[in-house]
UniProtKB/TrEMBL annotation:
This is Enoyl-CoA hydratase. It comes from Caballeronia cordobensis. Coiled coil: none annotated. One of its GO terms (molecular function) is catalytic activity. InterPro entries: ClpP/crotonase-like_dom_sf, Enoyl-CoA_hydra/iso. It comes from the Bacteria.
Amino acid sequence: MSAYSNEASSRVESSVDDGVLTLTLNSPSDGNALDVAMTEALSDALEQVNDQRDVLCVLLRSSSRHFCTGGNVKDMQSGSDLMRGSVEDVRERLLRSLHRITRALSGLDVPSVCAVNGAAVGAGCDLALMCDIRLASTSAVFAESFLRLGLVSGIGGSWFLTRIVGYAKALELTLTSEFIDAEAALGLGIVAKVLPDATLDSEARALAKRIAQNPPTALRMAKRLVREAADVSLSTTLEMAAGMQAMLLCGQEHKAAVGRFLDRQAAKKRTSA
């Protein structure tokens, strides 16, 4: 296991193992709130991923009883942290600070897995929604709870939520600020699997490592193709698929993978003979 480069802040612990970059939110005293310090630490780590060729999957998790409780309500009351200054100051700070996470996480070339335990509410819920695959523990709860504080999702969560659950359900969850448990989130497609609290981490790590075993170039292209296909026409998707497939068919990754496949088939025949 090698240390990743984001060691400057203890709020986000980082390590790389078997192609998986694990980013652990580590500010239990405030529920891993997305204040400026947490935002900068997480953004710094995420913005480096696409340049790290040894990273093939990102695992986002928490070291404490909650995944992320959103913004720091005490800071909102005092007007400190992100909320300092004029309307123009706050808007600029959101664009330059909090939105760094949205751009970096949604712009990852490699897949991301999120392990959600405890509360993922407000901006914490949005943070989970930005990841590609979400696993939840039985204790997890989710909420787009912004209206409870007279706010809207300020980091783009509505964009992700609508694509995951559809327009009508996204509007219902937003307008009611309803808290939903892990099983309800599973039924809506917000999470892929619900796991016991004790096995969430190990299952999430196993999934991330399984993803990271894929050929690196093909893995990145596969994610990009699925991501782009959600917003473009079929003809555009076919053009992208043809170009990517042609490059992969002519590349060494494909040839090596075919060789390994044929070797396994031959070995199976020998053992069954």
